[in-house]
Design brief:
3-stranded antiparallel β-sheet; alpha+beta; 20% strand; 126 residues; 6 strands
Length: 126
């Protein structure tokens, strides 16, 4: 990965990433996607490889974050209810990237349970 780019967001599917990428591109922010083609080939790999990563140039990160926070959709339960952070009670919840340092993840990436991360306080929870 290019050292000039940082991960802005992680998406389960490439279509979600493409929509956000298009909005940022229209605002003249340099973007690229990582793992998009792999997940398009086999969507079941999304959780195992940590989803599609939307990368932005590090000089555009602050502006890209502001735009993304205005348009993003936060995660909900299967019934469509908001998920709340156990730490700050915020409902700005996203899919957390996998813990790639965890030995169990390295051995059995398909069995890693998805986790959530609070966009406000950065607490990771299940």
């Amino acid at each position: 990965m290019n050292d000039n780019f940082v991960v802005l967001a992680v998406f389960e599917y490439s279509t979600e990433a493409q929509i956000t990428k298009s909005k940022l591109d229209s605002e003249h922010i340099n973007t690229m996607l990582a793992d998009e083609k792999t997940i398009d080939t086999d969507p079941l790999l999304s959780q195992a490889i940590g989803g599609v990563k939307l990368l932005v140039h590090k000089h555009d990160l602050e502006r890209a974050t502001e735009i993304y926070n205005e348009i993003r959709r936060y995660r909900k339960t299967e019934n469509g209810h908001d998920i709340h952070c156990p730490n700050c009670n915020s409902n700005h919840i996203l899919m957390a990237p996998p813990d790639r340092k965890n030995i169990l993840y390295m051995l059995f990436p398909f069995f890693e349970k998805s986790k959530h991360i609070c966009n406000d306080c950065q607490t990771i929870f299940k």
